[in-house]
Recover the amino acids of this structure.
């Protein structure tokens, strides 16, 4: 009874908090005062984080570790399937290779100034409005500095490199708008300018900053036009990962970003990255880098929320036609993103629509309304019309959700595919800016659907008089792909593949059994149509065709002087006659760009109509519920013992009131007597709260609901940039590190908001003034070659710590690496891998440095050696090399997690995820050989991403359309490493799913009274977590007592303690996440705080006791003592649960009547962790102590 009442009270308090926050959000004044709590939290975080969390990929090294992947040519369609051609080209073909030799020593300084001005003006007028990632002042500054006054003395070198990069890239992009008949020459010029810009890319992309993101955007823009310059899959993922790190996916709070121009520019940059990511992902049928549900950033140009644009916001209030065009492009992009997520990535259909068919009808109506609006005012040959047809194809095509489409849908798909191929053909013929990556991929998909329809549904097409039209369109598709190959040479292979499919289809009509190879090709066609994102088993059954013979390098064109670049007339003709104006896909629509917004296709339902649930959130419902509860109150203990009838009144029955005794009832859950006076107090509080919470009808007037609790923290970046000139300062955007609403620093901000008069402790203020960057003494130490006698125990420690909880290598592989390094001539010969050896030594020494501090310098030294010796190339076609690259990247991720000063773990993990997805969707003949290793690496990747994304409070790509994978929970053996790896993957995926739901609810709460589905979801999560923990405890007991009982075997006892503490830490972390969504039985913040603190203390003690190189090995059969590598995400988890427990009840750590032992335990652990700078807690313990001590302010 008592637990139920307390649980209901917590629910009503949550609803009241959400309602109050919504009311506050609805009344926003134009003038915003500073958020004092955010500013204080940022100051506190700067002590522990600014100098101890790297903002660069590698601190102190301008190295791009995955450059070989970022700038390898984009793959032509079919994206992940090897067909008759070389899947990865050793010497990639380029559009301008015929003139490459003439541009070999060319750079941007060789372009005449008047040509620079014309190219720059063309970019700002024709291309910049589509991707407004800079302010006009920024672009003007970069142009003036790079082209006019580049010799200005005293300017910071990085800013000089940035200006040269920006102008070289803008000219490379703008040059492709030329209608020069010889496109090869224009492409060669653009490629030369790109090569010139690439000289600065390593240092510019190192830092996590707005300027680095702007550079990535320029690289993606060019790669959409010349896909051989960069790999769009990796670049787009890097850009979105960087945008999330900077917090651009979250709406800039007016009290934090008080400069409206700054906030507006953040919005523009984010939505540009969003569009580019969607173009790349939708073109290739790949997962997007950020789910729509996790975006709260409002639209630029004062339009409002995304829902306003989707549901028909009036864009006419935007006076600038270029801005209206940007919003219209964005509206189409958002629609395509929703269709892609629902059709191919299992996004649930909105509950108010009911079925998938209802959703398809609604989306169909929206796309048609959009098409009517576009056709009325826009050139019908524009890219927007083509995007409409692409929406139709995605909406009605066969997919995993609906493989057998209706005849009406099939006809719609065929009509849209025919129109799309025709429109894109006209766009390619017009010249100028042609987004060949997007066009090439979408017309390939259109061709696949036409072939599929002609083969499997010819009768239906004949009834609709479409069979001949579809056949003719396929022929024109092959011609179009060959024409586009002048811009993207590998498309000629795609054209050959289309022709092969057509010929194979003609040879083998439906029902005819042709050759084995023909049948496999036709099966591949079905797979391409119905499972475009899934790595099908069928892929592995198609043998690799023999590689093509390398084609001879093209001969140079005849009658062309080698000095034409010095010919002023050529440059004059180039800028005066050859540029496309208002005809390209980037250009403004004719007719002034007036567009008709699409009306909402469904009636405006009130939130009360959509969101009422059975719980009842008003006083009347609560009264009825309490009546039932009061009727169920048992007899009090006094009356029961005397066997007399109890009146069961509150706060005491008649007999207890008469005798002035405490009236108690027995609670079977608590197994203790509970005073009825406590029950009465809870009921009175419930009644008061029920009256304070607005009814659903009243709350439905709020058009935008903020999260129920939690506020993000934007930590300004003050490190890594030298002071710039005033001219630069006035146009540069400041960058921020983003910590999400439910991160530890977000919880700190929440606590400070309730302490309006809070002042920083004097010691903390003094530390802030005296904080200097952490110094590295590695360069002062001379290192001798590491002897094998020291390397062996370091490898052993790595094996029983890192490789146990984050397994990357199989045990025998570690032995091979060690032997190959010290005995290269041993038989059998082993491949020598110095970077892997150095990384393992660095990680082992890093763990041991917690007990032997002198080893920290050794760890730092070997990590720097590993970074400096990283391979700059990759055999892209070799699965073995790609798996090795994934292993190397995961080692770097673990090191930067343990030592955050060394590098940016968020971006390294982002690349590892992209590489994993690439390998998952890529067929290979070597898959069976490394299947076990790849599954192990996948589980480790999920574990690391869970730690990092939840600690930062940022959304993760890994949970988009994902579920528990059967092959990842299958054991390859009975080792402890396998058990930990599988269990870690299971709980990590579950925690990321809960965290994703939290972020989704926080950014898109439509109604705070929709409690029933949320309660059921939380109950499902809790049951999954309980079953996981129960299974883990069953695993641990036999594992730890395999050879003897824990009492008689000390090492078995220690192993059991470590493993149980590890499981308990994950369990209570999961419970903390669930209670963030909704109050959950057993999820009391104090209980969670105690559970996390107990488990954390145990793990930290074991690390200090057993993470040393002299720890005695275990006797045979008992297993080594494992060491959990405690890192900063665990430390911040401790801080987070402590702050949440403190916020729930006003208790003190020391002294006072209501002392909470869980907070005392938490404070002790924080003190222990704070001593290590790598835990990112420095200076936070006195703040925690003062907040928890309930100081009178």
């Amino acid at each position: 009874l008592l637990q139920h009442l307390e649980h209901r009270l917590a629910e009503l308090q949550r609803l009241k908090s959400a309602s109050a926050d919504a009311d506050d959000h609805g009344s926003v004044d134009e003038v915003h005062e500073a958020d004092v709590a955010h500013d204080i939290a940022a100051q506190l975080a700067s002590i522990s984080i600014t100098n101890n969390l790297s903002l660069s990929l590698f601190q102190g090294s301008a190295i791009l570790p995955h450059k070989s992947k970022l700038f390898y040519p984009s793959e032509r369609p079919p994206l992940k399937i090897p067909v008759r051609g070389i899947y990865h080209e050793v010497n990639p073909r380029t559009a301008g290779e015929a003139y490459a030799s003439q541009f070999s020593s060319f750079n941007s300084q060789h372009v005449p100034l008047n040509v620079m001005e014309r190219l720059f003006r063309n970019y700002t007028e024709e291309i910049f409005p589509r991707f407004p990632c800079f302010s006009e002042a920024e672009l003007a500054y970069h142009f003036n500095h790079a082209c006019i006054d580049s010799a200005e003395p005293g300017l910071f070198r990085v800013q000089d490199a940035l200006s040269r990069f920006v102008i070289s890239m803008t000219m490379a992009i703008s040059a492709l708008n030329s209608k020069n008949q010889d496109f090869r020459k224009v492409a060669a010029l653009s490629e030369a300018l790109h090569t010139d810009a690439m000289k600065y890319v390593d240092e510019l992309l190192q830092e996590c900053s707005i300027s680095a993101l702007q550079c990535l955007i320029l690289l993606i823009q060019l790669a959409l036009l010349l896909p051989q310059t960069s790999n769009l899959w990796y670049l787009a993922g890097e850009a979105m990962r960087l945008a999330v790190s900077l917090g651009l996916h979250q709406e800039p709070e007016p009290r934090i970003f008080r400069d409206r121009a700054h906030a507006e520019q953040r919005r523009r940059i984010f939505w540009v990255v969003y569009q580019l990511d969607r173009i790349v992902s939708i073109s290739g049928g790949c997962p997007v880098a950020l789910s729509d549900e996790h975006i709260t950033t409002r639209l630029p140009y004062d339009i409002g929320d995304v829902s306003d644009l989707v549901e028909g916001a009036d864009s006419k209030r935007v006076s600038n036609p270029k801005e209206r065009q940007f919003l219209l492009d964005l509206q189409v992009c958002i629609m395509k993103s929703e269709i892609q997520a629902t059709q191919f990535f299992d996004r649930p259909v909105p509950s108010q629509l009911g079925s998938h068919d209802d959703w398809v009808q609604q989306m169909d109506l929206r796309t048609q309304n959009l098409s009517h609006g576009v056709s009325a005012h826009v050139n019908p040959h524009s890219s927007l019309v083509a995007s409409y047809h692409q929406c139709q194809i995605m909406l009605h095509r066969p997919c995993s959700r609906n493989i057998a489409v209706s005849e009406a849908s099939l006809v719609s798909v065929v009509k849209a595919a025919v129109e799309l191929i025709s429109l894109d053909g006209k766009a390619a013929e017009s010249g100028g800016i042609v987004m060949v990556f997007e066009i090439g991929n979408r017309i390939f998909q259109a061709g696949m659907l036409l072939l599929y329809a002609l083969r499997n549904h010819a009768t239906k097409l004949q009834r609709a008089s479409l069979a001949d039209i579809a056949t003719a369109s396929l022929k024109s598709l092959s011609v179009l792909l060959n024409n586009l190959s002048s811009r993207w040479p590998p498309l000629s292979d795609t054209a050959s593949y289309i022709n092969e499919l057509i010929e194979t289809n003609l040879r083998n009509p439906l029902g005819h059994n042709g050759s084995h190879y023909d049948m496999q090709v036709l099966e591949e066609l079905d797979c391409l149509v119905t499972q475009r994102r899934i790595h099908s088993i069928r892929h592995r059954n198609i043998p690799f065709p023999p590689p093509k013979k390398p084609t001879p390098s093209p001969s140079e064109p005849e009658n062309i002087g080698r000095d034409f670049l010095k010919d002023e007339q050529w440059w004059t003709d180039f800028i005066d006659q050859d540029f496309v104006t208002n005809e390209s896909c980037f250009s403004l629509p004719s007719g002034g760009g007036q567009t008709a917004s699409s009306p909402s296709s469904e009636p405006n339902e009130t939130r009360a109509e959509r969101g009422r649930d059975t719980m009842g959130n008003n006083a009347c419902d609560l009264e009825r519920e309490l009546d039932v509860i009061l009727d169920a109150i048992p007899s009090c203990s006094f009356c029961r013992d005397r066997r007399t009838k109890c009146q069961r009144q509150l706060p005491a029955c008649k007999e207890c009131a008469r005798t002035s005794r405490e009236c108690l009832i027995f609670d079977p859950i608590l197994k203790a007597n509970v005073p009825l006076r406590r029950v009465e107090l809870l009921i009175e509080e419930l009644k008061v709260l029920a009256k304070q919470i607005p009814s659903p009808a009243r709350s439905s007037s709020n058009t935008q609901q903020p999260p129920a609790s939690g506020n993000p923290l934007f930590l300004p970046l003050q490190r890594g940039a030298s002071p710039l000139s005033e001219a630069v300062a006035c146009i540069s955007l400041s960058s921020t590190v983003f910590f999400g609403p439910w991160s530890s620093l977000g919880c700190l901000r929440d606590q400070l908001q309730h302490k309006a008069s809070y002042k920083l402790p004097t010691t903390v203020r003094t530390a802030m003034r005296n904080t200097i960057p952490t110094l590295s003494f590695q360069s002062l130490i001379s290192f001798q070659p590491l002897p094998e006698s020291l390397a062996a125990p370091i490898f052993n420690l790595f094996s029983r710590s890192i490789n146990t909880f984050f397994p990357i290598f199989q045990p025998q592989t570690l032995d091979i690496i060690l032997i190959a390094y010290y005995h290269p001539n041993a038989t059998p010969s082993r491949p020598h891998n110095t970077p892997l050896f150095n990384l393992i030594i660095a990680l082992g020494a890093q763990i041991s440095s917690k007990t032997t501090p002198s080893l920290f310098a050794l760890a730092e030294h070997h990590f720097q050696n590993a970074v400096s010796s990283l391979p700059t190339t990759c055999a892209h076609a070799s699965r073995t090399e790609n798996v090795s690259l994934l292993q190397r990247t995961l080692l770097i991720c673990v090191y930067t997690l343990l030592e955050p000063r060394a590098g940016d773990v968020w971006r390294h993990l982002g690349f590892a995820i992209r590489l994993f997805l690439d390998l998952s969707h890529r067929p290979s003949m070597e898959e069976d050989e490394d299947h076990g290793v790849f599954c192990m690496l996948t589980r480790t990747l999920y574990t690391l991403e869970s730690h990092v994304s939840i600690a930062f409070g940022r959304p993760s790509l890994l949970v988009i359309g994902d579920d528990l994978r059967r092959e990842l929970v299958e054991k390859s053996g009975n080792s402890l490493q396998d058990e930990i790896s599988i269990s870690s993957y299971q709980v990590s995926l579950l925690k990321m799913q809960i965290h994703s739901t939290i972020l989704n609810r926080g950014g898109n709460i439509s109604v705070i009274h929709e409690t029933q589905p949320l309660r059921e979801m939380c109950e499902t999560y809790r049951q999954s977590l309980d079953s996981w923990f129960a299974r883990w405890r069953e695993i641990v007991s036999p594992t730890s007592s395999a050879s003897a009982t824990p009492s008689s075997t000390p090492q078995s006892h220690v192993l059991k303690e470590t493993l149980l503490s590890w499981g308990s830490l994950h369990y209570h972390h999961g419970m903390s996440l669930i209670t963030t969504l909704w109050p959950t039985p057993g999820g009391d913040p104090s209980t969670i705080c105690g559970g996390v603190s107990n488990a954390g203390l145990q793990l930290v003690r074991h690390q200090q006791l057993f993470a040393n190189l002299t720890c005695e090995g275990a006797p045979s059969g008992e297993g080594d003592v494992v060491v959990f590598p405690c890192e900063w995400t665990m430390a911040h988890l401790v801080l987070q649960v402590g702050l949440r427990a403190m916020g729930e009840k006003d208790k003190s750590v020391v002294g006072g009547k209501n002392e909470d032992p869980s907070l005392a335990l938490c404070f002790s652990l924080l003190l222990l962790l704070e001593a290590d700078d790598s835990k990112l807690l420095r200076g936070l313990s006195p703040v925690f102590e003062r907040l928890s001590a309930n100081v009178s302010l």
Residues 409 and 885 are 44 Å apart (CA to CA). The first helix runs from residue 2 to 26. The radius of gyration is 32 Å. Strands lie at 664-667, 672-675, 713-716, 736-739.
